[in-house]
Design a protein that fits this description.
The protein is 37% helix and 17% strand. By secondary structure, the protein is of the alpha/beta class.
Amino acid sequence: MIRPRMLRSLLALLLGATTGCTTIQLGAANLIETAEVPRTEVAYGEGPRQRYDVYRALDSIGRPLTTPAPVVIFVHGGSWESGDKRGYAWVGEALAQLGFVAVLPNYGLMPSTRFPEFVDDVARAVAHARARVTEWGGDTSRVVLMGHSAGAHIAALVAYDARYLATQGTTPAILSGFVGLSGAYDFLFDTKLLRRTFAGPPEREHDALPVHFVTPRSLRTLLVMGEDDRTVNPRNTRSLAAALRKAQVPVEEIWVSGTHGVSVGAFARINRGESEIVRRIAAFVRATP
């Protein structure tokens, strides 16, 4: 039998003290998530990855809520070239147990889907889910977009660059806030991965950086970052927070000890009961803008 202290240490190693989020790490979090949460898969387009999972909000004893619940649309990471919504089922189940409707979309991945097409996918999923979320008990006045790592980058573009949701006939005003977990928002194209994904004409590189699209009308924002992150430089969070403050947009920051997985790892079952990250994100989601 694995004792709780041993399990906590293992999960801390896998999710908090690593340089990235691998299949093994995600599998560990899924393994210990034992809740039975109603899940529905929905197609938002015709592509094989144009689908999202919906997790119904639960009350304190595990029953589906009967009153409208806040909604969190969570975009997974994976360096724009890997990852899957089912690998993050534990995040959807955690959000549901916190009393939220959780929507986890897949999106096209590199190299078959290039920038900005994968951002278009997420915008399409956001608009589609927002239009239907009352079917699953969601409160349309409280729909927060959240992402981790590359998913935070994509989600930030959808949240701040109004052109993406405009192609879906709507605006970022349908959202009540943005939460970024260890996200890339203001970076140099100084690695093979980043050049392969984003480099090109100046306008393309400009459009790849969420920090360029902050305005006084931008969504209120909560940013979470590990102080020792070596996968995404913490300067990304500092730069975005500074731009938001300059535009007088409400922004909160949570800085914690740990590396790249620590922000999303807070939602793992063994962590979330005492996590400041989870507590503050939950309060942010529940708040009425």
